[in-house]
Amino acid sequence: MSSENLRAQILESQRERSDLMRWKLLIVAALGAAGLGIQKGDVLSHSALLLALMPLVCVYVDALCAHLSLRIFTIGEFIHSRRVTPDTDTMDRDYEMFLRRLGPKFRFETLALHWSSLFVSIVTIAAGHFISTPTQVEMVLTSSGILGVALTCSIWLCHRSRRRAIAQEGREYKKAQEA
Questions:
Q1: Which side of the chain, N or C, has fewer Cβ within a 10 Å radius?
Q2: pLDDT digits (tens, 9 = 90+) for 102-145
Q3: CA-CA distances (angstroms) from residue 108 to 8, 26, 28, 30, 58?
């Protein structure tokens, strides 16, 4: 596979990730509006249950985005670790090394992704205590929020661990190429 094909895969994955983040915002806003907007008598208990879906939607989108991030990182790691020969384009490798030095300076999107999910989950927990009178609705909202917090943290930790493993594999691949 050529360097151009790999770069095209990176760009496509970045577009998909951006699209998913937009959809996350739209779906959470729609669920929130529907859950808070249809409050007439007993309908509150049913419509408020839509709020319980918000943390789960966030977790699902976060998992998909984490996968795409790992795909992007893996391709970048491969490009960075490959052996430079006279017939390869060293600019690709030099650029990958430059990005590697910048490291965490490009992690704001990932932070926004996970922190927004934590925020939605915590708001869902609070909503269970403040807007609902039936105890079952409160329990569902609180449980959904707690599950959202736990799964968001789990996805973030898993993503971080796998990213480190990919980086280690890239270093080992590079050493094998140089040997």
A1: C
A2: 666 566 777 788 889 999 999 998 888 777 566 788 888 899 99
A3: 23, 20, 20, 25, 17
